[in-house]
Amino acid sequence: MASREKEPPIRLDHLALFLDFDGTLVEIAPTPDSVVVDPELPPLLSALRDRLGGALAVVTGRPVAEVDHFLPGLGLDVCGMHGLERRIDGRLFLPEGLADLREPVARLRARLSHFPGLIVEEKGIGVAVHWRTAPEFEQEARAAVEDLAAELGPTYKIQDGKAVREIVPGRAGKGDGIRQLMTSPPYLGRRPVFIGDDKTDEHGFAAVDELGGVTIKIGEGETLARYRLASPASLRLAMAGWLETGLETDALRDA
């Protein structure tokens, strides 16, 4: 059988890079507040953004402000809350017409306060319940989120991730956030690359596949992504190499 012809590296000035945060740029932590940012990550992202002509964005379920908390001073483009919050070139766009969730979230906290280790993460326009530190209460967490979603009605939906279930506005989706960015400079006309690790990233993989881009999953598990890297540390190593050579898909493992 003939060997597959080696693909040439893709020049960074031809690409738009979209990066999930938790589980992709940083390792998953027991709680949302306890993630650790490798000290090499911020300068690496800054250098990549420069080489990409600014076409780099974090696409995450976290609010924009939380990305700034963990990556202070960078001022990256961010699609937060699964694409609903967007900061592009320093301008912040927030969703309108959503319900005030403070009272429903307070009731959710009260219901789950009887189950030590469950974490209720309020996200302004959404809410998540994590059971990573209390896996024995997974069913209680899932049921509470399902009941609240039913109460809020069809304008909201449930998304499941790694030891987390969250409620987000029905129009949320990382793929839609990426599509929005791809319609304007510096992303316009480039080939998108999306890297993520979780179920919520599959929406982004599908959109980028349709746009003819490159999709990379971090870690194991079924996925729509074309390629795979083992861990956030592997991604950091790969991105450092891209600064020297461009994106080499032949160096990635097929998913």
Spell the H/E element sequence. Answer: EHEHEEEHEEHEEHEHEEHE
CATH superfamily of the largest domain: HAD superfamily/HAD-like
Radius of gyration: 18 Å
How helix-rich are the residues, as a percent range? 25-40%
Q: Which architecture name of the largest domain does CATH use?
A: 3-Layer(aba) Sandwich
Which regions have little confidence, pLDDT < 50, spanning 5+ residues?
none
> Beta-strand level of the residues, as a percent range?
15-25%
Instruction: Please report the distance between the alpha carbons of the first and last residues.
Output: 22 Å
Shape: globular
What's the β-strand tally?
13
Global structural class: alpha/beta
Query: Major beta sheet, specifics?
Result: 9 strands, mixed
The total domain count is 2
Biggest sheet strand order reads 5-4-3-2-1-10-11-12-13
What is the helix tally? 7
Mean pLDDT over the full residue set: 91
CATH topology title of the largest domain: Rossmann fold
CATH class of the largest domain: Alpha Beta
Notes on the structure:
There is one protein chain. The chain has 2 domains: 13-95 and 173-254, Rossmann fold (3-Layer(aba) Sandwich); 102-169, Trehalose-6-phosphate phosphatase related protein, domain 2 (Alpha-Beta Plaits, 2-Layer Sandwich), CATH 3.30.70. The chain has 7 helices and 13 strands. The protein has helices spanning 41-51, 64-70, 102-112, 138-152, 174-181, 202-210, 232-245; strands at 15-19, 56-59, 77-80, 85-88, 91-93, 119-122, 127-130, 156-161, 164-169, 191-196, 214-218, 227-229, 253-254.
